[in-house]
Each structure stands twice: as C-alpha cells, then as structure tokens.
C-alpha cells in the first residue's frame, strides 16, 4: 500500500487483534489514532473519510465530543438543565419528560452522534403502528392506535433536544432536519374547481330551429 500524504489518513491493523485502526492528522497537524471498531476494511475507510471531512469542516472536535456521550445520558442532561422552570414552563417540562420516556426506550444504546435521520424515521413508523397503553392497577390495557398528533409532539421534543445539542457543540447538525414524517394528510388531493375571475355561468344553448315556409 502506498504511503499516504501528510494531510490524509490511513487504515491499519495491529498485532494484538483483528479490529482495524485509523490514523490521521488533525487541524493542527498532530496525529490522531483511534479504533475503527470494525474488522471490515470498507467500514474502516468510511469512518476515516468521515473523520477527514469533519476535520476539514472544523467539526472534528464536536463529533468526537458527541461520540463520548450516550443518547440516554444526553436526554437526562437536557431534562435536568434545559427543560425545568424557570427556563421552561412546568407543563412543557412535563411534556418533555413524558416524551423522553418513549425516546429513551426507542434509542437505548447508541451514542448521541449515532442518531441518524433514517433511524428517526424508523422510530416514527414503528410508533404509528403501536396502540395506546393505559396503566391500570391490574396491569396495562391497550386502546386504539396512537394518534399522529401525539407522535408529532414526540418528534418536536426530540428535535428540540437535538437543537440544544447542536447549540452546545455536541452535534454538527440536527438529523431531524432530514426526516420526512410518515403520515399522509387526508384530503390533500381533494379535487377542486376554479373558474375565471370575470367569467359568468354558461347559459344553456337552445337549438336553432329553422322553419321552412
């Protein structure tokens, strides 16, 4: 393999395991070495390209900081520091807390930077097929299908959480910006008719009867 240029990086393997590693220079020219967390050469090269693109876009430190923070950990931090009164109303905090329960259950393992638009869309589609569960003394009772308005509220809370993460330089961008909400709007293509502004209703045409004398 040819020797990489000074501004590029390299994927390599170590003698102590099968997991591949990547090496690259940061913005100041210092070498950074980290595990690619995969044995697949293509995946390791993909991570290296992402690191180089983040470096060139001055986002490398933001991404590396976000990678050390779990999504559930960030949700708890948001509720504690950016959701309570007096920063937000008590009802808003209660809504955020209720939605956070579902969001943490949907994304239990990934780091904050691993929350992608396609994962959010998968979550929305799954939730639209679920039924409302009401807690009773004897257990839970299932009711009707979850309303899209409830899911819209959860999505707005998630978007707000990630916007705060962007503002605090934990994320380079909010993945919710690339999410298409999977709900068809009823009546969107309802037929309608348009007449001219100065047009008058057409009059019925009478047959022209010619009598021959």
Question: Care to describe what's here?
Answer:
With 213 residues, the chain is an alpha+beta fold. The protein has two domains: 10-58; 71-178, Tyrosine recombinase, N-terminal domain (DNA polymerase, domain 1). Helix content is 39%, strand content 13%. It contains six helices and five strands; from the N terminus they run βββαααααββα. It has helices spanning 41-56, 60-67, 71-81, 90-106, 117-128, 148-167, and strands at residues 10-13, 20-25, 31-35, 131-136, 139-145. The strands form two sheets. The protein has a three-stranded antiparallel beta sheet, covered by helices on one side. A two-stranded antiparallel ribbon has the order 4-5. The longest helix has 20 residues, at 148-167. The chain is elongated and about 60 Å long. Mean pLDDT is 81; it is low at 1-5, 187-199 and 209-213.
Topology:
Layout: E1 10-13, E2 20-25, E3 31-35, H1 41-56, H2 60-67, H3 71-81, H4 90-106, H5 117-128, E4 131-136, E5 139-145, H6 148-167
Antiparallel strand pairs: 1-2, 2-3, 4-5
Question: What are its keywords?
Answer:
alpha+beta; 5 strands; disordered N terminus; disordered C terminus; single chain; 13% strand; three-stranded antiparallel beta sheet; DNA polymerase, domain 1; two-stranded antiparallel sheet; 213 residues; 6 helices
Could you write a compact summary of the structure shown?
The chain is an alpha+beta fold. It contains six helices and five strands; from the N terminus they run E-E-E-H-H-H-H-H-E-E-H.
Q: In DSSP terms, counting alpha (H) and pi (I) runs of 4 or more, how many helices?
A: 6
Predict the CATH topology of the largest domain: DNA polymerase, domain 1
- Give, in spatial order, the strands making up the sheet with the most strands: 1-2-3
Which radius of gyration do the C-alpha atoms yield? 28 Å
Number of structurally distinct domains: 2
CATH class annotation of the largest domain: Mainly Alpha
Number of strands: 5
Note the overall shape.
elongated
Query: Mean pLDDT, as a whole number?
Result: 81
Order of helices and strands: EEEHHHHHEEH
**Secondary structure: helix percent:** 25-40%
Class per helix and strand makeup = alpha+beta
Q: What is the CATH architecture descriptor of the largest domain?
A: Orthogonal Bundle
Strand count, sense and closure of the main sheet?
3 strands, antiparallel
Beta content: 5-15%
Give the CATH H-level superfamily of the largest domain.
Tyrosine recombinase, N-terminal domain
Query: Low-confidence runs (pLDDT<50, min 5 residues)?
Result: 1-5, 187-199, 209-213
Oligomeric state of this protein: single chain
Question: How far is the first residue's CA from the last residue's CA?
Answer: 107 Å
